[in-house]
Design brief:
The protein is an all-alpha fold and about 210 residues long. The longest helix has 28 residues. The chain is elongated and about 65 Å long. The termini are far apart. About 25% of the residues are buried.
């Protein structure tokens, strides 16, 4: 007689396998050019090789699937950016931004999907906004530190400046990644970094 532990382990493994198949199939369809909004559950399950009822055993709806799929997206970018500090100078900031651009370019199908759904779904929008706010919080900490040691303007308002830098910079980055040529990635990344550097991190005091 099979043990309860073994049966539980088998069920857990099957569940993990089905989760992985559905997530992988969805990402493959998105990478192939499918719009997430127009992507039906039936098409996802057919691609994953599971029955439709299995989908609803693992995900409440498509938006829950999307949240699972894009949950690591901002984490990777955050790791890239947080490994750089203003002390590394302008070229360090430029290098980090170039890496960030490349990172999102490689995952543009996921970025497109989350921005698409965030436009009409409050839960997805709140999730994604919270991810971007992490970068703004980090930038605010950096700016306060730069202010304390006198490397940026004493009249700079760190929280506001951080919000402008991050939200504005991300809008440009996302727009370029989704609609701009890859050949211009480094140019766009450098321009964002230069504006951040001279507009905030090394902004002179007002006369």
């Amino acid at each position: 007689m099979a043990s309860v532990t073994r049966r539980s382990s088998t069920r857990a493994n099957r569940r993990a396998t089905a989760d992985a198949k559905i997530l992988q199939a969805t990402e493959q369809l998105l990478a192939g050019g499918a719009s997430f909004t127009e992507l039906g559950v039936q098409r996802i399950t057919t691609e994953a090789g599971v029955v439709r009822s299995t989908f609803y055993l693992h995900f409440r709806d498509k938006n829950e699937l999307l949240l699972r799929l894009v949950e690591p997206l901002a984490d990777g970018a955050y790791d890239l950016i947080s490994s750089t500090t203003p002390e590394q100078g302008l070229e360090g900031v430029v290098a980090a931004m170039v890496q960030d651009m490349r990172y999102y370019r490689e995952r543009r199908h996921l970025l497109a999907a989350v921005l698409e759904v965030a436009g009409y779904d409050a839960v997805v929008r709140e999730f994604w906004n919270s991810q971007i706010q992490r970068f703004a919080d980090l930038a605010e900490v950096w700016l306060r530190g730069e202010q304390e040691v006198g490397r940026t303007a004493p009249d700079l308002e760190p929280a506001t400046a951080a919000r402008v830098l991050i939200w504005g910079g991300f809008q440009v980055l996302a727009n370029h990644v989704l609609s701009g040529p890859e050949s211009q990635d480094e140019t766009v990344a450098r321009e964002i970094a230069l504006l951040e550097w001279y507009g905030a991190f090394r902004r002179p005091a007002q006369a």
